[in-house]
Amino acid sequence: MLRLHTARMPTVNVDLEDLARRSENLSPADLKALCQEAALAAMARTSSSPAADGGEATASVTQADFDEALARMQQSRTAHAASF
Q1: Distance (Å, rounded) from C-alpha 12 to C-alpha 53?
Q2: Are 72 and 80 in contact (CB under 8 A)?
Q3: Which residues lie across from 11 on neighbouring strands?
Q4: 3-state secondary structure at position 72
Q5: Exposed, middle or buried, 10 (CB in 10 Å: 0-12/13-18/19+)?
Q6: Bridge partners of residue 62, in order along the sequence
Q7: Domain ranges of the chain
Q8: What are residue 61's DSSP bridge partners?
Q9: Is this model's pTM higher than 0.85 or not?
Q10: Residue 18 contacts by C-beta under 8 Å, 6 or more apart in sequence?
Q11: Which helix (DSSP H) or strand (DSSP E) does residue 11 occupy?
Q12: CB-CB neighbours of 30 under 10 Å
């Protein structure tokens, strides 16, 4: 499922097998949201640091972007579960 959602995503040093192990309790919809959140994190990171040549920077998604997105999703799920 992660390979499907990252197929057209420019990634750098992302260990999908490790990410799959750490996100095995997520639904397919959650995995899609995880990939989208990681892409948004990469875009936010890239927009704050322009390219060295003065052009537009390319937003490559890194392991850190996925780690950040997964942590946010787990915090959200924990807070949601605690509200019951």
Answers
A1: 20
A2: no
A3: 61
A4: helix
A5: exposed
A6: 12
A7: 2-82
A8: 11
A9: no
A10: none
A11: strand 11-12
A12: 15
**Which alpha helices (DSSP H) does the chain contain, by range?**
2-6, 16-22, 28-47, 63-82
Could you give the CA distance from residue 36 to residue 40 in angstroms, rounded to a whole number?
6
CATH (residue range 2-82): 1.10.8.60
Residue with tokens 């992660």: 2
Q: Is the sign of the CA dihedral 15, 20, 26, 32 positive or negative? A: positive
Alpha-carbon distance of 41 to 45, in angstroms, equals: 6
Alpha-carbon distance of 12 to 28, in angstroms, equals 23
pLDDT tens-digit readout, 34-70: 999 999 999 998 887 665 555 566 789 999 999 999 9
Q: Tokens for 25?
A: 């309790």
Structure tokens at 71: 């942590």
Residue 26 has a CB neighbour count (10 Å cut-off) of 19
